[in-house]
């Protein structure tokens, strides 16, 4: 069985939703994971925000506007009167529910329920559309088998235990539809997967049933070897290892959330990134295998702040770094890059809400310097310890650009460079020209 995930733009209009059958094959065993129709989740977030603030009139106006959009969506998606009535019933049910929340007590629990409505709508409407054209399918409620534990981590054994009987109950069917993003938490309440959303759902389902492969369908033909919005002549990468893909996703490749492939990686399920606009394009395959001895891609992450702590007390001292890291741990602030010398340590963060408090505590160790508006440029490929010449090639490519920090050797898959954000575009283009 294959898992096929389609994002919001792939179901963003009735026409797009109908075209999914150019890709979905009802004669093959497939679970189709759908996101909410594009724009819906943003609207639901806005509605929920108004309800939390008790701005009831504004929330009602937003609910009515979104309801009208779905009324029009149903008319175009389902021309047959009988099936259109079914679709309209579904839409009215969900929006009557949203309207009922306006005068009730609204908490963070209801907030999660509101956010779930988008996926519940898109999957049910697609299921009705398939029925209307005679294509058999089964709608699987994700809330019956997707669960996170008390640490907000997905419970894959729970999914396997509860999804497998559902699939066996419908042995005569090959096409299944379910919701991305939504799940239940350890209390049984409606919740969501947060990190990676629907991609994460697809990867978790692939792991839970040991699928043949997971396909992530977007509007881009795979991961590119540089940012196509900035650099001309970029090309899709045919093959990446899971580790390489995670590095690229973390450092700026927006096509994929860095944690969304971890379940597939753990269970060795290949992930294929494909383009709904060009279904025949090869895309990018992410698996345990990778081409050796090759630089694959370049990505960049903005919004970085560099912190340098200099202190003679660090010389030959043990426990110094631990005490510094404990400060960041207390303020729940992740560190991206780190470099050290005998008397100084430099590191980067991208979450700066607690920066003033962090700096105040760091001042007790020595002098502290802050550099804002930095970018991490990450070069990903096969940089194993036995390889030679790659680091020199990367550094030579940007010898005309000031570099604030360099991280090499922490991973066998990347070289990370910290540059001022004003130099990011030049760094990406120069690296691309010299390397590719």
Task: Please render the helix and strand layout as text.
Elements: E1 2-6, H1 14-19, E2 30-34, H2 40-52, H3 56-77, H4 81-100, H5 108-132, E3 138-140, H6 156-169, E4 175-179, E5 182-184, E6 190-192, H7 197-208, E7 213-218, E8 239-241, H8 242-250, H9 262-266, E9 271-275, E10 284-287, E11 295-310, H10 320-330, E12 338-340, E13 344-349, H11 355-362, E14 367-381, H12 390-397, E15 405-408, E16 414-420, H13 424-435
Parallel strand pairs: 1-2, 1-7, 2-4, 3-4, 7-9, 8-10
Antiparallel strand pairs: 5-6, 9-10, 11-13, 11-14, 12-13, 14-16, 15-16
Helix pairs in contact: 2-3, 2-5, 3-4, 4-5, 6-7
Domain Aspartokinase ACT: 377-433
InterPro entries: AceGlu_kinase-like_sf, ACT-like_dom_sf, ACT_Aspartokinase, Asp/Glu/Uridylate_kinase, Asp_kin_monofn, Asp_kinase, Aspartate_kinase_CS
EC number: 2.7.2.4
């Amino acid at each position: 069985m294959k898992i096929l995930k389609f994002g919001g733009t792939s179901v963003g209009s009735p026409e797009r939703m109908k075209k999914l059958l150019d890709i979905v094959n009802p004669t093959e065993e497939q679970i189709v994971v759908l996101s909410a129709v594009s724009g819906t989740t943003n609207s639901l977030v806005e509605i929920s925000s108004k309800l939390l603030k008790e701005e009831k009139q504004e929330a009602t106006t937003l609910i009515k506007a979104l309801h009208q959009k779905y009324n029009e969506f149903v008319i175009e998606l389902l021309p047959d009167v009988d099936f259109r009535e079914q679709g309209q019933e579904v839409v009215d049910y969900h929006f009557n529910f949203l309207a009922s929340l306006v005068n009730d007590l609204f908490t963070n629990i209801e907030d999660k329920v509101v956010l779930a409505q988008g996926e519940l709508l898109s999957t049910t409407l697609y299921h009705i559309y398939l029925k209307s054209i005679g294509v058999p399918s089964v709608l699987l409620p994700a809330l019956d088998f997707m669960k996170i534990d008390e640490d907000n981590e997905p419970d894959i054994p729970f999914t396997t235990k509860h999804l497998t009987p559902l699939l066996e109950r419908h042995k005569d069917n090959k096409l299944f539809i379910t919701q991305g993003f939504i799940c239940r938490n350890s209390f049984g309440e409606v919740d969501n997967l947060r990190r990676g959303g629907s991609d994460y759902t697809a990867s978790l389902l692939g792991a839970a049933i040991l699928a043949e492969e997971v396909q992530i369908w977007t509007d881009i033909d795979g991961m590119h070897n540089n940012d196509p919005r900035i650099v001309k002549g970029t090309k899709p990468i045919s093959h990446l290892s899971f580790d390489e893909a995670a590095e690229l996703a973390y450092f700026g490749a927006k096509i994929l959330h860095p944690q969304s492939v971890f379940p597939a990686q753990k269970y060795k399920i290949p992930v294929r990134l494909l383009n709904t606009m060009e279904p025949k394009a090869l895309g990018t395959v992410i698996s345990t295998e990778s081409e050796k001895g090759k630089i694959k891609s370049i990505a960049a992450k903005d919004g970085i702040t560099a912190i340098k702590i200099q202190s003679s007390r660090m010389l030959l001292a043990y426990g110094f770094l631990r005490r510094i890291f404990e400060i960041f741990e207390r303020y729940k602030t992740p560190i991206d890059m780190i470099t050290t010398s005998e008397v100084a340590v430099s590191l980067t963060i991208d979450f700066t809400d607690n920066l003033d408090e962090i700096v105040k505590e760091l001042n007790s160790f020595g002098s502290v310097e802050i550099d804002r508006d930095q970018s991490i440029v990450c070069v990903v490929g096969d940089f194993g310890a036995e390889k030679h010449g790659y680091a020199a090639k990367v550094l030579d490519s940007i010898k005309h650009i000031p570099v604030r920090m360099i991280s090499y050797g922490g991973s066998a898959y990347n070289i990370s460079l910290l540059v001022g954000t004003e130099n990011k575009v030049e760094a990406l283009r120069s690296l691309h020209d010299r390397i590719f």
